[in-house]
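A quick aside before the break. I want you to see a complete sequence-to-structure record at least once, exactly as it would be stored in a machine-readable document. Don't worry about memorizing anything.
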Amino acid sequence: MIVLWVLVTVGAAVAAYGAGSVRRGKRDRLELDAVRAALTAQAEQRERDIEELRSERASRLAGAQQEQSRNNHRLRRRAREAIDESGAVITERLQDVVEQVGAAREAATATHGRVATTSRAAAVMVSRARSADASATKLNASLHQVAGIAGVIGEIASQTRMLALNATIEAARAGAAGKGFAVVADEVKSLATTTAESTEQIAATVAALEADVAEMGGTLTAIIGGVAEIEQAMGLLGGIADNQHRIVERLNSTVGATMEQIQDLSEVAERLERRRNERTAANGPVTVQVAGRSPVQGQLIDVSADGLGCLLPRGAAVSVGDRVTVTVGLSGATFEAGADVVRRADRTNGSELGLHLTSVPAAAQRQIESYVAA
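That is the input. The structure line, written in tokens, reads:
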């Protein structure tokens, strides 16, 4: 613009000079040369001023970029330190939880074992008590039989006493001839009396035994009922122990998953710290291919000296940790490089990937650095 203005001004001056009188002579030419020189000097000064402004602006912009880079680096470092400190505290507390979970698991296992042992002992006790109850029932029946036999013996003894009494009466009637018979009758009477007394004692003993057996049967029945309640309680306690064991296992699994997530968070922080190169917005075609799979077409989002971001169709078969070959179109040129997938975020318009370049040809590296520095 300044050069054009100078040319127009000079042209106008020349035209004015040509239109004027030739009689102005050498004086007018000198004045015109002076004007032209002044205008040229003014234009050159303006060019120098503009160049200084451009240089100052570029210097300020470079300084601002450097300051922004330093600020970003400090922020990433602080973010990693905060993540590491938080992760360390959480990991320490989770480690305590893991130890408590282990103790709870051992306690639940021990409780389950004791419950199982008690249940088996209770089952054995019930079996023995039922066997004893059956034996008592049989004994009671046998005692009833003994009581019946004792009753029969008692009746026989009573009849024997009656016969002995009749024999004594008949011996008394016979006088001297019946003395020997009277002695025998007395012996029979004495034996009958002794038998009757023994029979009564047997009956009393059998009755007492029957009462004891009945009481023992009631006690055994109560024991069986009590043991059955113990078995039921042990069953409930065993169920509680099983539930506790399952809860502990789920808690242990949850704690393990949480610790893995904390480890993943630490890895993210480490990747954040490693990302020292600023990303620059970019646009161009991208092809991402995992070995053994079909290539996926996408769009370039940004690029840095050691990585790039791209957007692939949603549901693309590319996962974090995959090693890929990426073909990138950047500034009218195309290059191919090896990369690792370090980030994936599924969005409504597709799947956004973050790639860390691991194998880049020298020409491609220069192309990337030139684009980022532009």
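Two observations worth writing down. Helices lie at 2-19, 25-174, 179-274, 362-373. The longest strand covers residues 333-347. We'll return to this after the break.
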